[in-house]
Design goal:
2 domains; four-stranded antiparallel β-sheet; mainly beta; 2% helix
Length: 424
């Protein structure tokens, strides 16, 4: 074979070399293969191969690279991925939850309270949905019971539970739930029995309605809802007619009325009839709100100091402004916004202070193409993880707590592929 390239790298503190050689077959390479060496076969069926050990090792093997990727990341295993502040959580189709990163409140659910830069399994099974925004994760089990671990300072996990740090999944005393969305100190959910919106936990920003400081399991909206989203300071929901409503504290021109806390839900379709109707999803941070309509249009309002609304300016938007069309999904954190187009392009805009948008240029005032063939993603506090159509996971941005699951605490300049995942 022809030797066409070389680079030196390290894996688990052991040096290995990568060579790329071309040829019509790989047979003459097996005698002197080096661990990590790659081979490009250029015959009728071109493909990359990799040696997983040195030629002196009796267990040496040469494997087709795509076969290895498919073994590591099969499509059927990942059901959902969510980022909290300093932690990442992956739900498998088998109902297990694997997490990495900050565990100071017990949000990894492994009963240790110890940080982990690699994935650990939460002590719960048969999970259908997960939701985390800050440092409390909620697990919705197949039987409709709602569980939680992590921060319990506002009794958002369980009223009457004296512990503020819940190290393993604990029953919230709420059952019959079909959908869940976690806020910073509260949680909202839809009950199967009537399809209505309920919530519990902290109410310091009126995000559960009324004027009390915190509530147990309480009705928020006496009507059937289809989509819910809890933010740091509010709660949003879409009714079955597709109309968007919200409740909570106003902040820097988001869709809440400026200066007046909304203690009973506000229907936004009456204020912005062409925008807040036919809504499929809403993503909200402390300072802005993104509205995705069923026709694929994305609108946004609120703080725009870092260009996170993608309008090519840094001007606060008091009313929703049009951002893009042909959008299939949107997710956002306080300083950056990401969306996926209908053809699978991942785009983002905003501060980029932890290189979550890729590269070192900041701020990004218009949507920047980050990757293509993307199926889903999640972001929080300068971190991003997304999955491509070939089921490969990439992670980038803020990683000081090891929340990207890369096995280190360094911030990558560009998104890096996640390979060593014990749950796949």
């Amino acid at each position: 074979m022809e030797d066409v390239g070389y680079s030196g790298q390290y894996l688990d503190n052991k040096e290995f070399r990568i060579k790329v050689r071309t040829g019509a077959n790989i047979q003459n390479a097996t005698g002197d293969a080096i661990c990590g060496e790659m081979f490009l076969v250029t015959g009728a069926n071109p493909a990359f191969y990799v040696a997983t050990s040195t030629s002196s090792d009796s267990t040496q093997g040469i494997y087709h690279v795509m076969d290895l990727i498919e073994q590591v990341l099969p499509a059927s295993d990942i059901k959902d991925i969510q980022l909290g502040i300093g932690s990442v959580h992956v739900l498998t189709h088998g109902g297990d939850v694997w997490s990495a990163g900050d565990n100071s409140w017990g949000q990894l659910g492994d009963d240790t309270g110890s940080y982990s830069s690699t994935f650990v399994k939460a002590l719960i099974s048969d999970v259908d949905q997960i939701s985390i925004l800050d440092q409390t994760i909620f697990y919705l089990k197949d039987d409709g019971t709602l569980w939680g671990s992590g921060r319990n300072t506002q009794s958002q996990i369980q009223f009457g539970l004296s512990a503020t740090q819940v190290l393993k999944p604990t029953y919230t005393l709420v059952s019959g739930v079909s959908k869940v969305s976690a806020g910073s100190t509260h949680v909202i959910y839809i009950k199967t029995s009537d399809g209505k919106l309920y919530g519990k936990g902290g109410n310091g920003n009126y995000q559960l309605g009324g004027t009390g400081s915190s509530f147990p399991d309480s009705l928020i909206y006496d009507g059937v809802v289809s989509h819910i989203h809890a933010s740091n300071i509010g709660s949003f929901f879409v009714d079955i007619a597709g109309n968007l409503s919200g409740i909570g504290w106003p902040n820097t021109g988001n869709v809440f009325s400026n200066g007046t806390p909304i203690t009973a839900y506000q229907g936004y379709a009456s204020l912005y009839s062409n925008i807040a109707s036919s809504v499929s999803k809403v993503a909200s941070t402390t300072f802005n709100t993104l509205i995705l309509k069923t026709n694929g249009q994305l609108w946004g309002c609120g703080e725009n100091n870092w260009g996170e609304l993608g309008l090519n300016n840094q001007t606060q938007q008091a009313a929703p402004a049009f951002i893009s069309s042909d959008v299939s999904d949107v997710f956002a954190s306080n300083s950056s916004t990401f969306f996926i187009t209908t053809n699978g392009e991942l785009k983002g805009m905003g501060q980029n202070y932890k290189q979550e948008l890729g590269g070192t240029v900041y701020p990004i005032l218009t949507p920047k193409l980050i990757d293509s063939s993307v199926s889903r993603g999640t972001t929080q506090n300068g971190s991003i993880i997304y999955q491509k159509n070939n089921n490969v996971l990439y992670a980038g941005g803020h990683n000081s707590a090891g929340q990207l699951g890369l096995g280190s605490f360094a911030d990558p300049i560009d998104p890096k592929q996640l390979l060593t995942l014990p749950f796949l």
